[in-house]
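Hi support team,

I'm filing this because I wasn't sure whether my run with zinc ion finished correctly. The job status page said complete, but I'd like someone to confirm that the output block is well-formed before I use it downstream. Pasting the exact inputs I used:
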Amino acid sequence: MDLPPGPLTDAHCHLHDDQLRGAGFSVERWLCDEAPADWRGIVNGTSPADWEAVLALARTDARILPQIGLHPWRVRERPRDWASRLETLLIQNPQTGVGECGLDKWIEGADITDQTHVFKEHLSLAHRLNRPLTVHCLRAWGPLRQVLEGTPNRPPAFLLHGYGGPPELVPVFVDLGAYFSYSPSFADPRKTRARAAFRIIPRERLLVETDAPSMPPPADTPGALLLKAREDGPCLSHPGNLAVSLRSLAGLRGEDTESLREALEQNLRDLLKFLQ
Ligand SMILES: [Zn+2]
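And here is everything the job wrote out:
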């Protein structure tokens, strides 16, 4: 995919998520009237139930860059034919990446063996079809490293979205070819591990994301946009928090925002250059 230079791309979000709609966010309004003129986003599907919605959104607006996969939280409920359905849709939609997929030991009752089996299928599919892949990882950095190091036939490029792993593993994942995206939730000074990691990640592997509706910035962050479905409900992240991610990352690294933004867009083009 030959993306034009310029915009700031959200490397990971779920614009089609029902939680956003339930909190009064309209994806149609966002795309028509509200998104910054230079906005664009990688929208990730997480299970067969939302793959078609992501692909349909991408068909209506070229600023939506689709990826589809089976999130580790959806592994348990997967239909038997998930892998063949995923492969068929990826072949039918050549400009589509693979993900969100990965490993998660944080969720209750995590079956890491089963998750690993499913994750390896994604790696193999992305390798065979030459597609970039997005990884979700929570509290499973050792197993993730093991799987990636044990898989010689990896995707041509992959993103560790919202990287919250140990700074010590950054050089390992860099050598394996990883890109890393910075979440607005890392504007929280208490996220010391993620912030330490993003200080040392090489500039040419950095991206920014919102993960909307998940992972909102702290409410007192300047420019933070928060949504709620109910008064007493959890805060959700708005896709407009991409600007918060960029400013926070630039501040953390002591970099000029505009020059960092240009570097991030070059990185995005490098990540997606394998798409037809
Ligand atoms: Zn996500």
